[in-house]
Specification:
The protein has 16 helices and 14 strands. By secondary structure, it is α/β, with parallel strands linked by helices. The protein folds into two domains: 132 residues, Cobalamin-binding domain (Rossmann fold, 3-Layer(aba) Sandwich); 276 residues, tm_1862 like domain (pyruvate-formate lyase- activating enzyme), CATH 3.80.30. The strands form three sheets. Strands 2-1-3-4-5-6 form a six-stranded parallel β-sheet, sandwiched between helices. A six-stranded parallel β-sheet has the order 7-10-11-12-13-14. Strand 1, helix 1 and strand 2 form a beta-alpha-beta unit.
Length: 441
């Protein structure tokens, strides 16, 4: 069979569409690696390449997170009108399988690694089932090498994405990871990860370990870092703020080639952290932790979510002051978005605070709920303000281009900041030119 795996694009000129730093989706590369070799498989990332709907294919697979689901449904309709069966999977179909099934022939709920070959056999004998779900969590020891040869590598900021674990031991209210993996945390054998490292075409280029929590199992993390330290690598990953409370682990990360960590600080208000279920974060330890990472040459890409119940209009200036004072190299600064399937969605739904279920607006850049301590407009304008000012020339000079505070992480965070400076402004202009029907109430 000829199989096409598709990642839908973000709406044109939207916040995430204009950002030039694109990443491949590891799940599609792994799925391609799981495809028996008698089949011909291709990957189309619509953010990079237009879809050829006239191409003759036997099966289309579409993966969709919530804001991309409407576009995914459009793509499915186009192929089904041409008689091509369409399977959809990913986060949104897992949360809302019945909704998704109305737009495609079959829905995969949750992980598909261990049933993908069976699904393809069903397609070949015209016996495709409406829904598929694995009986158990994927055994990570059996994962194949991803098909990186199918990627348009020249157009991605990172091409070397590797997963060492799945899931997260925490249970944050807003997090989609827990919603899809059910609180499980699994590890891959260290020797398999080393095999994957050695198979990379550009092993000395940057690697992104896409784990939601690289250090969820400290003993495993130590073994992983010890192995990585034997290779000349430069890498970034994700982990909790508590990582910086372990000086030994931070030193091991630096020795192993870590140049940056995505860390979920989420809020500068402890009451918000308690509501989120992230009480393990202690705000009085933030600056100490950042300093420790910086002292070891590790940059900080901070996540702060705006719009939680105890946020007031001053929160945006509070963050900007904090980021410049602590020389934070980069930041993910979304509006709280209550994705279906998360506990925060259920809570806000019960409280009557959800303003729309137009999933295309669930892009983390548009207010879709009624905040507690500010208006919808204050939250929306605050989002643009904090992103615009964080990615401004004066802020960059204070945070990362300060000649008295240069770190090796500038290699990656310098280009990222410079690229996001015009992108944020372009996205804001497009946002303001659109007509919005979500009103303050």
């Amino acid at each position: 069979m000829k199989i096409k795996l598709i990642i839908p694009r973000w709406p044109e000129k939207s916040f995430w569409d204009v950002i030039t730093f694109k990443f491949p989706l590891l799940s599609t590369s792994v799925l391609a690696g799981l495809t028996p070799r008698e089949h011909q498989v291709s990957i189309v990332d619509e953010s990079l390449t237009a879809i050829d709907f006239t191409e003759e294919v036997d099966l289309v697979g579409i993966t969709a997170m919530t804001p991309l689901a409407p576009r995914g449904y459009e793509i499915a309709r186009e192929f089904r009108q041409r008689g091509v069966p369409v399977i959809m999977g990913g986060i949104h179909p897992t949360w809302l399988p019945e909704e998704t099934k109305a737009h495609c022939d079959s829905v995969v709920i949750g992980e598909a690694d261990e049933i993908w070959a069976d699904i393809l056999e069903d397609v070949q004998r015209n016996g495709l089932k409406p829904f598929y779900r694995q009986e158990s969590r994927t055994d990570l020891t059996q994962l194949p090498l991803p098909r990186r040869d199918l990627l348009d590598k020249k157009r991605y900021f990172f091409e070397n994405l590797i997963q060492t674990t799945r899931g997260c031991p925490y249970d944050c209210e807003f997090c989609s990871v827990t919603a899809i993996y059910g609180g499980s945390y699994r590890t891959r054998p260290i020797e398999r990860i080393e095999e994957e490292l050695e198979a990379l075409e550009r092993s000395k280029a940057y690697i992104f370990f896409v784990d939601d929590n690289l250090v969820g199992n400290i003993r495993y993390a130590r073994e992983l870092l010890a192995m990585l330290s034997h290779h000349r690598l430069r890498w970034v990953s994700q982990g909790p703020m508590s990582i910086a409370r372990n000086p030994e682990l931070v030193r091991l990360m630096a020795k192993a080639g870590c140049h940056g960590m995505f860390i979920g600080f989420e809020s500068l208000t402890q009451d918000n952290l308690e509501v989120m279920g992230k009480g393990m974060n202690q705000i009085d330890q933030y600056e100490i932790g950042i300093r420790r990472l910086h002292e070891n040459g590790i940059g900080v890409y901070a996540s702060f979510v705006f719009g939680y119940d105890f946020d007031e209009p001053h929160v945006f200036d509070q963050f900007l002051d904090f980021s410049e004072r602590n020389h934070i190299e980069g930041a993910f600064l979304p509006i709280l978005t209550p994705f279906p399937g998360t506990r925060v969605y259920r809570r806000l739904k019960e409280e009557g605070r959800i303003l729309t279920e137009d999933w295309s607006r669930y892009d983390m850049a548009t207010v879709v709920f009624r905040p507690q301590r500010m208006t919808v407009n204050q939250l929306q304008e605050g989002f643009w303000k904090v992103n615009r000012e964080f990615y401004s020339i004066p802020s960059m000079v204070k945070r990362i281009f300060n000649p008295f505070a240069l770190r090796r992480s500038l290699i990656i965070f310098g280009p990222m900041n410079i690229g996001l400076w015009p992108a944020v402004r372009k996205a804001q202009r497009h946002f303001k030119s659109r007509k919005h029907d979500v009103r303050d109430a």
